[in-house]
Amino acid sequence: MSEELFYVGRRVPKLDAPAKVTGQVVYGHDMKLPRMLHGKILRSEHAHARILNIDTSRAKALPGVKAVITAEDIPEIKIGWARDHPVLKSGKVRSMRDEIAAVAAVDVDTAQEALELIKVEYEELPGVFDPEEAIKPGAPIIHEEAPDNIQEKMRQSYFHGDVHQGFAESEVVIEDRLRLPFVTHCCMGTCFCLASFSPSGDLTVWSSTQMPFLYQRDLSMALGIPATKIRVIKATMGGAFGSKLDMYPFEPICILLAQKTGRPVRITFTREEEFIASPTRQPVICDIKSGAKKDGTLMARQVSMILDNGAYSSWGATTPLVMMQSISSLYRVPNVKYDVVVAYTNNPYSGAMRGYGNPQATFVIECHMDMLAHELGMDPMQFRLKNANQPGDVTGQGVKITTCGLTECIERAADSVSWVEKQAKPGNRGVGMAAMIHVGGGARIYPSDGCGSTVKVDDYGKVTLVTGSTDMGQGSETVLAQIVAEELGVPVENVTVINTDTDITPWDVGAHASRTTFIAGNSARLAAADAKGQILEAAAQNIGEDVEDLDMKDGKIFRKGEPEEWIPFAKMVRSKHFRPDGDVILAKGWYEPPTERQDKEFRGNISATYGFAAQAVEVEVDTETGEVTVLKIAAAHDVGRAINPMAVEGQIHGGVSMGLGYGLYEELVVQEGEVLNPNFADYALPTALDMPPIESIIIETDDPAGPFGAKGMAEPACIPTAPAIVNAVYDAVGVRIRDLPITPEKVLNALKEKEAR
Amino acid sequence: MVSLTMTLNGEEVTIEVRPDALLVDVLRDQLELTGTKEACGEGECGACTVLLDGEPVTSCLVPALKAQGREVMTVEGLASGGELHPLQKAFIEHGAVQCGYCTPGMLMSAKALLDRNPHPTEGEIRQAISGNLCRCTGYVKIVEAIKAASED
Question: How far is A738 from chain B (nearest CA, A)?
């Protein structure tokens, strides 16, 4: 890190913050177009039923209703990652969120009233709500194409080494069953879609998508509209956390209503709809077996999982691939086997959520690391250090670890909670920790993992970065502006960022896998470097110098070594423009990471680098009430380089709070397919009073592949928190919680069982 | 429709509203003050918080006619004379904003706190915003920003 940096590493406030603190930002929820109608969706009353008849006649007759649609009005095309999901359902419904009909009306109340006038006759079918029951012979069949209720594409087996031999060579072997519940994103801004057609049939969609280009393709497929007639613009959204990764049925429905009425239509979810009809994190039932030698050398890990897919497959059905990476590669473990089944049930369907399977995988691994350490009689921190991944390791799955701050993360997190003084001490307080690995340099799950950018410099020196990437509120615009400012040598105030308008912005796979800073950052840097070259070339011609002798910093062009004699760079931009053979400064960058897709045995290096973290927590357990109070969380994250430390801290804090909610409070209660707590009164998000002090510890390993050394870090913050809390509860009172959330009731029951023993 | 007169962000406003209209809908849909957000409609998340005679209320639960003859302040009224409120400046400088959907409600709860208690403790700050949910920040930088504004 010898180079002097001016804008990278600075706590630059978010570019959009002034507009957000004044209420001036227009979110998708706030948008209105002339003659705009409001769309509403009728959902199933049953989790599994045949649809015998849908009578929309009374709804159609209601004044103010402009269109009512059912499955008859839409091409018979199935959407979703496995193409198993009809947009509007006919024949039968498979979950209680299923879309049956939709209405466009002059206002929301009229649309709602119209829904109540639609009569649907059902014949109820037996449902199946437990994934283990679903895959037994004789269970009710959810999709005729999958008579065993298994999503075949995700029935996977992975291995490296030989687990049988690994366990045979182990001196301590333990086996357990662990479970994880339904939880959901709870974005403060719900899902929305606003669709409008031009007279020539060109569609513009203002959307809360985080994957605009795949979304454009999916809309085209679902509606039979050529992608060339579709423009997707991301409107400002209130958070995403993975929930806006897929195109969902409400979006083609909204567009269809607009097409049918010839008027713009907006659909905005209510909070209840958001709980019921946006996806969840997949519940997991996991059997795990781990073995080690007496000296603490990890020998073998065997994991078998059943995931509750719900009734349909979103991108979230592919989370086993991310789980697999942690199972194969978190810590050095020579023998690994992983088997996974993704089961259809009549529950709400699962999707992508921050960490994308990794919170579940890390939970089972890190609970078991702790249990194994205790079985070995070792300090769990020392056990982790002994087996920690190191720079230069290539794991059994072919994961190539380059920069790796895992050891430092473990040590620094432990120090922060005074681990040595507090671990295994009497009383009701305890400390626990968990670590994690996650992709930090993109994730090649698609033929391209690239991102395009352009940089335009105008005659006045204003720099516009047009990036393919998507800002969902996490602050990628600001980070990219800092990267461009640094590379180009202009003040960050001069840089404006345009993102996510498919008519304007170059291609990008989307905001997922913590890839934006790394991938879009590298892309923006290439474009900025190209623009800088063009400007210096113009300057060299203008003032008769060799281009190699010139440099640019802080908006000033000067001869290298003579920074006091300078020319404003905008003047040189104009000099290129204002001449007979003139030109504009317009540069592009395309970055495709040097990675590979996995082979048929799931081996391959899908990310250009990997992020590591360790979190340590101190808890106090009230043995009378069972209540767990987290006193402190230390979160040490190897981020490569913090382009904006304030933004990095913000991601750590937010992730930790999501992880704390997963650990202690959150559960979507689903009974017979019905969400029983679709509101914030009954689904407990952490409040300001629930959050303990968080010490964010930024470890910089200066990754050579990253833009100015940075690697992805946003998802990781929510990944290790919950298992760290479980492990701390064990350290405090000696009881092992095997399923989340850690409710007082579970703690009390476990304490009673311990007494009885 | 009935007539509603209130002082809104310092100016007297009279409009015709439905008798059962909620304050949040009148502000957002009729007066186009979309800075106030609605995120749950049940008074559980605080995104729609505005000040009614200086007291924070969840405007999704307040009938609009309750504002008759009273003072209502929304996030749009926080800055004055072209100058951002110290809380707004602190939220920007301390990174207290991510997606920003909870921000207007947070700011109004924080303003109500500082108006009655200019130098709150961290505990008092957390208590004052405990009805405002945020999914992005873990509240850390929001609390820091309110603290910083109170020390200005």
Answer: 25
pLDDT of residue A1: 44
Q: Which of A22, A183, A188 to mutate to test the interface with B (most CBs of B within 10 A)?
A: A188
How confident is the model over A451-509, as pLDDT tens digits?
Answer: 999 999 999 999 999 999 999 999 999 999 999 999 999 999 999 999 999 999 999 99
CATH number at B2-77: 3.10.20.30
Q: What CA–CA distance (Å, rounded) separates A265 from A103? A: 10
pLDDT in tens, A606-628: 999 999 999 999 999 999 999 99
A23: left (phi over 0), alpha (psi -120 to 50) or beta: left
| Chain A nearest-CA residue for B91 | A21
CATH assignment of B86-151, given 1.10.150.120, 3.40.50.2300, 3.10.50.40, 3.90.1150.10? Answer: 1.10.150.120
Give residue A522's Cα distance to chain centre.
20
Whole-angstrom distance, CA of residue A602 vs CA of residue A445: 11
What pLDDT shows up at residue A757? 87
Looking at residue A159, its pLDDT comes to 98
Count how many pairs of residues, chain A against chain B, have C-beta atoms within 8 Å.
Answer: 172
Across the range A731-740, mean pLDDT stands at: 98
Residue A598, phi then psi, degrees to nearest 5: -70, 150
Which sequence spans correspond to the domains of chain B? 2-77, 86-151
Query: Is there a contact between A473 and B141 if contact means CB atoms under 8 Å apart?
Result: no
Q: Are A317 and A305 in contact (CB under 8 A)?
A: no
Encode A247-272 in three state secondary structure.
CCCHHHHHHHHHHHHCCCEEEECCHH
Q: Which of residues 637-696 of A touch B (CB under 8 A)?
A: 646-647, 649-650, 653-658, 679-681, 685-689, 691, 694
pLDDT of residue A4: 85
Instruction: Check CB contact under 8 Å for B98 and A654.
Output: yes
Look at residue A76 and tell me whether its pLDDT is greater than 90: no
pLDDT in tens, B29-62: 999 999 999 999 999 999 999 999 999 999 999 9
What is the DSSP track for A587-624? EEEEE--S-----TTS-S--SSSEEEEEEEEEEEE-TT
Token couple for A565: 């004699």
Q: Are residues B99 and A239, on separate chains, in Cβ contact within 8 Å?
A: yes
Contacts of B126 in chain A (CB under 8 A): 688-689, 691
Q: Which residue of B has its CA nearest to A679?
A: B40
Distance from CA of A677 to the nearest CA of B (A): 13
| CA distance linking residue A443 with residue A454, whole number of Å | 23
Q: Which of A665, A698, A705 is nearest to A682 (CA)?
A: A665
- Does A2 have pLDDT greater than 80? no
Spell out a b/e string for A431-450, using b for 16 or more CB atoms within 10 Å of the CB, else e: bbbbbbbbbbbbbbbeeebb
Domains of chain A: 17-24+450-591 (3.30.365.10), 31-125+190-237+244-277 (3.90.1170.50), 280-444+598-756 (3.30.365.10)
A512-529 tens-digit pLDDT = 999 999 999 999 999 999
Per-residue pLDDT, averaged over A413-425, amounts to: 98
The answer to whether residue B67 neighbours chain A at the CB level (below 8 Å) is: no
Mutation pick from B28, B30, B75, B97 vs chain A, by most beta carbons of A within 10 Å, is: B97
Residues of A in contact with B47 (CB under 8 A): 188
Report yes or no: A184 at the B interface, CB cutoff 8 Å.
Answer: no
Instruction: Find, among A590, A596, A598, the residue nearest to A608 by Cα.
Output: A596
3-class SS of residue A58: helix
Please report the residues numbered 20 through 59 in chain A whose beta carbons come closer than 8 angstroms to any beta carbon of chain B.
Answer: 20-27, 29-30
